[in-house]
Design brief:
The chain has 239 residues and is mostly helical. Helix content is 72%, strand content 0%. It folds into two domains: 1-120, Alpha Horseshoe (Leucine-rich Repeat Variant); 145-238, no CATH class. The protein has helices at residues 7-15, 19-24, 29-44, 53-60, 65-99, 103-111, 113-117, 122-126, 144-157, 163-178, 183-202, 206-221, 226-238.
């Protein structure tokens, strides 16, 4: 129980997430509930999150992907409302589930990946380093906007990790995206490569920077394909 909003009104809202109700009353009702949940959580405050926790978990496992997608797009906002402790305990498991969901759901967490990761403690954030490369693989390879969004997010995410982590994990993703079949993805990836180099040199990780430059020279400057050599020219231009 809480005293922020009338209890009958809250009870009515919570009852709308009943799967049986969605089948008999309105198939879109769960989606509308998911859309408004961050607003309800903000009104109640983090001290009353226990009133919404079960409802949120029910919506996060809804059979309709549109419901899960709606939550995926707003989970970073909910994390701000709940704070780091509740986020780590209650939102991170759901976030992990969304990462393995359909592309239509994954794009929701991908679009705000930086916003969510920056709210986590450093040790929890490091756990996602290996998982980031899973975003390169999509259900439909023609979904190039997914890979474009990944490159954009990685440019932001660079600030959350130290140079060694960037070199060991994010560098491989950047090089893969630089060889994408779609030119738009390659273009944003060239910016990502330059951002990685800047990360190394602004943090005095000169050895890592030099290794990465040598790798770019071997991979693109001396490529047997003209598109590879063109990529090297574009990387120099962006830099």
């Amino acid at each position: 129980l809480q005293d922020i909003i009338p209890q009958p009104l809250l009870d009515q809202y919570l009852s709308m997430t009943d799967p049986a109700r969605a089948q008999t009353v309105d198939t879109e009702i769960a989606k509308h509930c998911a859309y408004s949940l961050p607003g309800v959580a903000l009104t109640l405050g983090r001290q009353n999150w226990h009133c919404l926790k079960d409802t949120y978990e029910t919506l996060a496992s809804d059979v309709q992907w549109k419901v899960r997608r709606t939550l995926a797009f707003s989970i970073h906002e909910l994390a701000v409302i709940l704070g780091d402790q509740l986020t780590a305990a209650d939102l991170v498991p759901i976030f992990n589930g969304f990462l393995k969901d359909l592309d239509e759901v994954r794009i929701g967490v991908l679009k705000h990946l930086y916003d969510f990761l920056k709210l986590l403690h450093a040790d929890k954030r490091r756990e996602y380093l290996y998982q980031l490369q899973e975003f390169v693989v999509t259900d439909n390879s023609r979904n190039w906007r997914f890979r474009y969004e990944l490159a954009e997010q990685l440019i932001l995410i660079l600030e959350l990790y130290n140079p060694n982590d960037v070199y060991d994990y994010l560098r491989h993703i950047a090089l893969t995206l630089c060889s994408d079949k779609v030119s738009e993805v390659r273009w944003i990836s060239f910016k990502l490569v330059v951002a990685i180099l800047q990360k190394f040199y602004t943090n005095s990780a000169n050895a890592l920077g030099l290794n990465f430059i040598n790798e770019l020279v071997v991979r693109f400057r001396h490529s047997s394909k003209w598109v590879g050599r063109q990529a090297f020219a574009f990387i120099c231009q962006v830099g």
